[in-house]
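INFO  loader      accepted 1 record
INFO  loader      residues=191
INFO  predictor   begin
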Amino acid sequence: MLLLKLFFAFMQVGLFSVGGGYAAIPLIQEQIVNIHKLMTMEEFTDLITVAEMTPGPISINSATFVGMRIAGIPGVLICTVGCIIPSFCICLTLAHFYYKYRTVSGVQVVLGSLRPAVVALIASAGASILMLGLFQAELGDIILREVRVVELVIFVLSLVILRKFKVSAITIILGSGVVGTAVYTLMGAVG
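INFO  predictor   done
INFO  writer      dumping tokens
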């Protein structure tokens, strides 16, 4: 029953995540954290962090990691296939019609109108992860819990380095991980 639940959850994610992997994050969160309660928001945030650092599409990586965390190897296969099948079928169908009707101006209007929705989905996912990472609160929470000072300082410094010095995002991610690990190791040794 759990595998069937995972398959249909990720099939919905694959079916409704318009705009790529980052647009799938709020949908995966809704299915796995809010509806089926298979993970906590903190576990989900950790999973998204790992999925983002792993090479490949973030939605497939997320499906793979959720499947492994919840049901092992069968969960990996079920979640990944559930996430891929709708997109595969939709892409085949759309490619056929796009090549047939690509010169029609209405097609370009529809594609242009989808862009703001995709930007909103990506912004929502980013804001949710930022709120949980810095304030231990979800986006909808009214009261912000304690501020995570170490994470806030690393975030601000990373943002400044990224914008001012144009350092590679991969270097920023790795550097943030090293600095965070060092700070928490020192705090654990002292405290």
